[in-house]
Design brief:
Elements (H helix, E strand, L loop, with lengths): L1 H14 L5 E3 L3 E7 L4 E10 L7 E6 L4 E3 L11 E9 L5 E11 L6 E10 L3 E4 L4 E7 L5 E9 L5 E8 L5 E3 L3 E3 L4 E8 L5 E11 L6 E10 L1
Parallel strand pairs: 2-8, 10-17
Antiparallel strand pairs: 1-3, 3-6, 4-7, 5-6, 7-8, 9-11, 11-15, 12-14, 12-16, 13-15, 16-17
Length: about 220
């Protein structure tokens, strides 16, 4: 009878053992992000409990944010990590996105980590818009759209090129310098290759080493 009694504390400890999730931070500041930039961060996880911790699911509050989901079980006292990516294409201004981490922690089954930041570009479109709508044109027929780029940085911005992965999109001019508070007219020509909506981006490459590439989102339709 002595041996079972001696094992009783161990059996009780195992019966009441629980995982306990902890994150290294509840808010992740992304600071200033250029439009179209993809920012990657790592959220450290820790198991402060006395049973294995299993991350059962990870969700995000926006399709612009993706997270690694295949997190191996974390032993008691062990650690792990979640890799998260935020794509700023189409955003302007302050952002706040949540990463929801579900686990088998009975007391905290959902841990939330918030990403914050400011999507800012030295150039903005005039008129200002998150997505530039070029309009619609018959398939195979050239069309054009005009807008302007304004320098809001307080110093000259030298643009080296304006390009897109869509070969039907052309930009005129494609290289120029914009003085502070000044605007430069930009003419966009496009030729729809078929019926339907096209969602694309174009990249403005600058001589600024801190903001070498600025991305803008646009849409047009073929009829």
């Amino acid at each position: 009878m002595k041996r079972p009694l001696a094992l009783l504390p161990l059996l009780l400890a195992a019966a009441f053992a629980q995982p306990k999730i902890a994150t290294d931070r509840t808010t992740v500041p992304l600071d200033t992000i250029a439009p179209g930039e993809v920012r990657t961060v790592t959220i450290a996880l820790r198991n402060d409990g006395d049973a294995p911790l299993t991350v059962t699911n990870i969700e995000t509050s926006c399709g612009c944010t993706s997270a690694q989901k295949d997190i191996p079980p974390i032993a008691p006292g062990g650690s792990g990590a979640v890799t998260v990516q935020f794509n700023s294409a189409g955003f302007d201004g302050r952002i706040r996105k949540e990463v929801m981490i579900y686990s088998n922690d009975p007391k905290v089954p959902l841990a939330v980590v918030t990403l914050t930041g400011l999507v800012w570009s030295p150039l903005e479109t005039v008129p200002k818009m998150a997505i530039i709508n070029l309009g619609a044109a018959p398939s195979g027929s050239p069309a054009e759209h005009r807008l302007s780029l304004r320098n809001i940085s307080g110093r000259p911005v030298r643009v080296l090129s304006v390009t897109s992965a869509d070969p039907s999109l052309q930009f005129h001019p494609s290289a120029f310098t914009v003085a502070p508070s000044d605007t430069v007219p930009l003419r966009i020509t496009y030729t729809p290759r078929g019926a339907g909506l096209v969602d694309q981006t174009f990249t403005v490459r600058t001589a600024d080493p801190k903001r070498p590439a600025l991305q803008f989102r646009l849409m047009y339709a073929g009829q």
